[in-house]
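Thread: "does anyone have the structure for this chain?"

Original post by V.I.:
We have the sequence but no experimental structure in hand. Need at least a predicted one for the grant figures.
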Amino acid sequence: MRVLALSFSVFLWIAAVLCSYGDVGVEGYIRYDTGSGIVDGKLNVHLVPHTHDDVGWLKTVDQYYVGSNNTIQGACVENVLDSVVVALLKNPNRKFIYVEMAFFNRWWEEQNPEIQEVVRKLVHAGRLEFVNGGWCMHDEAATHYIDMIDQTTLGHKLIKSQFNVTPRAGWQIDPFGHSAVQGYLLGAELGFDSIHFARIDYQDRAKRKDDKSLEVIWQGSRTFGSSSQIFTNAFPRHYSPPDGFSFEVDDDVEPVQDNPLLFDFNVEKRVNDFIAAAMTQANVTRTNHIMWTMGDDFRYQYAETWFKQMDKLIHYVNKDGRVNALYSTPSMYADAKHAANETWPLKLDDYFPYADSSNAYWTGYFTSRPALKRYVRMLSGYYLAARQLEFLVGRISTSANTDSLGDALGIAQHHDAVSGTAKQHTTNDYAKRLAIGTSKAKTVVDSALSCMVDSKLNGDCTAPTVTFSQCQLLNISYCPSTEEDIPQDKSLVVVAYNSLGWNRTDYIRIPVNDQNLVVKDSMGNVVKSQYVEVDIVTQKLKKFYVEAYTGTKDEKDAKYWLIFPASVPPLGWSTYFISKESQGKTSSFGSMTDLPQNETIEIGPGNLKLSFSSSSGQLKRIFNSKTGIDVPVQQSYLWYASSEGDADTQASGAYIFRPTGSTPSIVSRSVPLKIIRGPLVDEVHQQFSSWIYQIIRVYKDKDHAEVEFTIGPIPTDDGIGKEVITRLSANMATDKVFYTDSNGRDFLKRVRDYRADWPLKVTQPVAGNYYPINLGIYVEDKKSEFSVLVDRATGGSSINDGEIELMLHRRILKDDSRGVGEPLDETVCINNNKTCEGLTVRGNYYISVNELGAGARWRRTTAQEIYSPLLLAFSHEGSEKWKSSHLTKASTMQSNYTLPLNVALITLQELVDGSVLIRLANLYEAGEDPDYSTLAKVELKKMFAEKTIKKIKETSLSANQDKSETKTRTWKVEGETQNSSTPIKGRPVDISSLVVELGPMEIRTFILTF
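Reply from O.Q.:
Generated one for you, C-alpha cells below.
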C-alpha cells in the first residue's frame, strides 16, 4: 500500500507540473511559446545569444575559422555561423548577435546565393543583428584612434554593402579596460545608442553593484560634454550566462528536462533556478530590465543545444509568471532602458586601469610585445600615406591595392593582437599578414610615385617608367639602395613624400659607405649635411636581424649615417640628389668630444640644450634658450623583477604587471659617454649595460630631444623576469598629477593612487598607477610642462612627483594564468633556428620642456610627424637626366595652400566605386591652446586644386550613413543641469564654397565624387 500511495503521489505531482507548464502531445511534442515581448510590471530578462570569436589568440585567424589545431582549443567559427543560421530558421522568435566581420566576411563569401538571401532576411527581420560591426573587437589601450576608425569602417562597409543596415550597439565585451575615445568617438560618434562590456576593475564593480551604477551614461569627452553621452552597460559578471545556464554541447550543466517520463524531470527546479539568478541580478540593476549574455568564447558550434534550452526556459519561465523572459538584442535592451525614463549616474573619462583582483592589474599588456606594437604603428602611418597615393593616381582594379594591408591592420587591432597577449605562433601569423599586406601596398606606393614624378606620363599611370625601392629596416642601418656604391655619372635619387597637410622640414638619415658625398635639392643647391659613424651596436643588430627577417646574411656593414634636412610641401614630395663630389668633401663629419672630468657637458646646436655630468654620464638638465625654460632632469634605466607569485600565486605575465616590490633595480649609476657634435645634430651615446644602449640626439631647429633606445636581449640567466623602464626625474612639484592620452586623441588627468569613481584601496602602488600611452605623457608645475612622446603603444606613469616612467620592454619567465598559457619570453632565431636569442627592441621617445600652457602645440604637431614620417623612395639616375623628365617638387594642393596647423587629414582613400572617403580632424581639445583650440577651416577646392568636386556627402564616422541620419538619444542624468555649454562644431558644408569647418576635437567624414 505504501508503494501504491507513493506512486499515486508522484502521479499527482506530475499532473500538477503538466498543468503549470503545458501539455505534452500524444507523441511527446511540445510547442514552446517563445514569442513573448516586454511585459510591463514584471522583471524582463533579456536573453542575448552571442559568441565571442577572437580574431586570433591561442590559434591563428585561419585555424579558428576552419577549426584546425584543436589540440590547443576546440573552436571553429565556420561551424558557429553555419549552425546559427540553421537554428534561427527553426523558430522565428530566436535571435542572435554577431561581432567580428573579419570572420563573417570569409563565411559570407563562401555561401551560395540562396543562403545569402536567407541571411539577408534574418538580418532585416532583426533576428540576426550585427553589433560593433568592426573587422575585429579592437583593443582599447594599445590602439591608435585612426586604426580604431579604419577597422570599424572596414566592417561597417561590408555590412552596409551587403545588408543596407547600420549597427546600433557597441559590444566591447572582452577588452581589458575601456578608453574615453571608445566611449565618445567609437560609440556616440558612430551613431550607437549603447555600448556594452564585461571588464571593469573589481573594486569599481563591487561599488557599482552596491549602488546600482553598473549601467551609466558615459560622457567620455570634456570637449563635447553632454553631446558625447552614451548609455553604457557594464555586466555584473563575465560575458557568459549566470552559472548553470551555459548550454554548449560539452558543458557540464543540467538541461531542462520536460518529458515527464524522464526520471530527472526538472522543469520546476530549473524555473526556480532561473528566477533566483534573475532576482539576484535585478538587485544590482535599475529598472525592470536585465540582460543575460547567453554565450562565451566560440560558443554555438552546435547552436541548437543553446536555442533548444532557451526555448524551454522562455516557455516555462513565462508560464510560471513571476518574471518575463524573452529573446533580445543589445539594441532592444537599450530601447527598453530608454523607455523606462530612469535617471542614470554619469561616468566621466575612462575605465583604466583594470584589475580583476588585488594583485592582478592588467597593465603589463600596455607594453607586451613592443616590437609588434611598433610594427603596427609604423604600418598604420604607412597605410595612411599609401591610400593617399593610391587615390592621387587613381585606383586600378587590375593592379595591386592597399586592401590587403587594410585587412591585416584591421585584424591586428584585435584585443589579443596589438595588445601582445596572443600565443607566439599567432603573433608570428599577425606579423606575416602585415608583411604580406605591406608588400602589396609597397607596389602601390612605388607605382604611384613613379607615375606622379614622371612628367612624360601626363597622368597615364598604366606603365610607370621608374623603379623605386623602399627600406623598412632603416632604423638598423639596412638599406641596400643607399649602401651600394653610387656610379660617377649617377646620383642616388631620394624622393620624400609628405602625407601631412602642412609644410614640414624633417631630417633624413640614411646609411651610406662613401664619405665623399654631396646632397643637392631639386634646384641644384647644395644642402648642408652631416656624417655620423654607425655605432657598433647598430652594426651587430643589423647583422643578426637582417638575417632573421630576410633569411639572407648581410655581409656589408654601412659605415656612416648621412643626415640632411628635407623640406617637403603638404601632400607632396621633394627630390634630393646624392652624388660623389670630385672636388673634396662637402659634408661635415660629426666630431667626437673629449670629456673633461668633474665638469658639465652641454650639447645642442640650436636653442635646446642638454647638460650631462662628465663623471656619472647622466643627464642633468634641459634648457631652452628661446623660451627660458630650464628644468633639472635626470634619466636612467631600471627594471622591475617580475613576480612569480607568493602567498598569492598571481604572477606577472603578458596581461598582468606584478612587480616584486615597488622599487626597481637601477641598471647603472655611472654611464660611459661618447659625445658627437655637428652642425645639424649633436649626439650623446650612452652604454648603460651590455644590453641597454642609448643615443640622445638634439637637432638644430628642433625644440625636442630624440632618444633612441636599444634594449635586449634582456638577460634571464639569473632566473628573474625583467620589466624594463626608463625613468625621467624632473625637479617639479606635480602634486601626484600627470596626464596621458586616450588612443592618441584626448589627454586625461591622472592622479596617483586615486580613482574618481570609488575610494581606491591601494594594493599595487606601481602597477595600479600605470596607464596606456599611445601619443604621450606629461607633467606640469606652476611654471613649466615636461612632455614625453612615444613611437608606439606602451605603458607609463608618474610614480613619484616630477617623474615620468615608460615601460619599454618585458621578458617574463612565467605565465600569468589568464589563458594564453605561455610566458612572455620572445626570442629571435637565425641559421634554421639553430641560433636564438632574446628579442632586442629599438625605438624612440621624444622629450620637450615648455612654458606652462604652451606644451600642447609641440605635442600635437610633433605627434603627427611621428605618426606620419616622411615616406622615402630611392632610385638611381643622373640628376640632370632625372630633372629633365621628372617633377622634382610638387604638392597636390593649390600653390601656397596648407591645412591649418590644428587640422590633420586622417583619411584620404578612393573606394571601389570610385568615390573618395576623406576625414579631417581638429587636433586640439577645447581650452588646450589659446590659438589652436578654435574653429578651423579647410578649403576643399584648394586642397584638391587639380580636381573638380561634383558632389559631397557628409556621413557618420564610419561612412555607413548620412550624417543627418545619425540620431543622439537624450538620457536623464543624475545631477546634470541643462546649462552645459554647447561645443563648437562646424556648420554644414556649402556646395558652392566647399569649406569644411572643424571645432575643437571634431572629426568630420565625407564621401566626395569627382
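V.I.: this helps a lot. The longest strand covers residues 629-641.
O.Q.: and The CA atoms of residues 372 and 384 lie 18 Å apart.
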